[in-house]
Amino acid sequence: MTAPAPTKPRSWRERVPAVLVLEDGRTFRGEAYGAIGETFGEAVFNTGMSGYQETLTDPSYHRQVVVMTAPQIGNTGWNDEDDESKQIWVAGYVVRDPARVASNWRAKRSLDEELADQGVVGISGIDTRALTRHLRERGAMRVGIFSGERLAEPAELLARVQQAPEMKGADLCAEVATTETYVVPAIGAKKFTVAAVDLGIKGMTPHRMAERGIEVHVLPANATAEDIYAVNPDGVFFSNGPGDPATADHQVAVLREVLGRGTPFFGICFGNQILGRALGFGTYKLKYGHRGINQPVQDRTTGKVEVTAHNHGFAVEAPLDKVSDTPFGRAEVSHVCLNDDVVEGLQCLDTPAFSVQYHPEAAAGPHDAAYLFDRFAQLMEGQRA
Ligand SMILES: NC(=O)CC[C@H](N)C(=O)O
């Protein structure tokens, strides 16, 4: 068997000018990477040194232009196994120095080719450190990437960026979630049935549950309490997802019914924000968010610190220093980010429900938080006894 020839990224074959324009007018010039054309979104940065395939296919990045802080991206190409969903969701992709050759035994093509095939416009060769520092100082903001031989005048490009929709107030889950219910079977003996509401679910999440003997019924984002109870679940799960949690009124109402019935509940990321809102806490937009696979979080129930994968631009506003009274009994902040004290998890004390703002499914990322899936299984076990 002969090894496939290394693939050459487009930027190596032909150099096409590209420009990135932020809504405050700051501009970076580089070269087209991936598809040639134009795109708009919210500029955010991701600090992961690896895991770009999982990042690009995470539906929570819908309508975001992701800037990679790691300088070299694309080294391991693109494979047929690591996608977290059916397509790339980022609105655009920004890298400094694209790998000139994809080299990995699983690689089927280069990252550049995959971006181009899926029509994802990117830019390379720009100072991503300067761009990241700008976003840290000024906050996440709208951005446009434009590539091609003839680009419009800067003032015209800027005007178009300023007309693009904002992330605050964006209701996006239904644009990425499944429209049909499907079942992920338990691996080995089946112990529990879970109704998982898909708000933009990553493929690894039902897999992590299946590994623990859970049969996962993945339901569309607009599922009702009736749909959930039709699968006769031992537990209910709400997934990660794109957009502003303040728009998720339907899901908040559904979750209140679930909490009222005392069914065990676990939420991840958007699911954590929905639990927060269902309990009566607010959510707010962070200045520039947490995105990466090296964020320190403390589990305040054990005191342990874990290194975790994050992708969130909003957060729950809840008191860190006291137990709160909610319509579903007492609740407390169970996890906190040690970088900035942002709420990273909620625990109900009188109702079998908890959630985390980060990604225990770890795709990509360290496996420190895998115990949370065990906690969910124990919670379901406890409710049965
Ligand atoms: N990964 C997620 O679920 C993100 C939740 C939400 N869209 C946020 O940005 O905070």
Automatic annotation (TrEMBL):
Active site (catalytic residues): 269, 359, 361
Region annotated CPSase, chain positions: 1-192
EC top class, as a word: ligase
GO biological process, one term: 'de novo' UMP biosynthetic process
Record-listed L-glutamine binding positions: 60, 241, 243, 270, 273, 311, 313-314
Pathway(s) the chain acts in: Amino-acid biosynthesis; L-arginine biosynthesis; carbamoyl phosphate from bicarbonate: step 1/1; Pyrimidine metabolism; UMP biosynthesis via de novo pathway; (S)-dihydroorotate from bicarbonate: step 1/3
Known partners and oligomeric status: Composed of two chains; the small (or glutamine) chain promotes the hydrolysis of glutamine to ammonia, which is used by the large (or ammonia) chain to synthesize carbamoyl phosphate. Tetramer of heterodimers (alpha,beta)4.
Role, per record: Small subunit of the glutamine-dependent carbamoyl phosphate synthetase (CPSase). CPSase catalyzes the formation of carbamoyl phosphate from the ammonia moiety of glutamine, carbonate, and phosphate donated by ATP, constituting the first step of 2 biosynthetic pathways, one leading to arginine and/or urea and the other to pyrimidine nucleotides. The small subunit (glutamine amidotransferase) binds and cleaves glutamine to supply the large subunit with the substrate ammonia.
Name recorded for this polypeptide: Carbamoyl phosphate synthase small chain
Annotated source species: Kitasatospora acidiphila
Organism lineage: Bacteria, Bacillati, Actinomycetota, Actinomycetes, Kitasatosporales
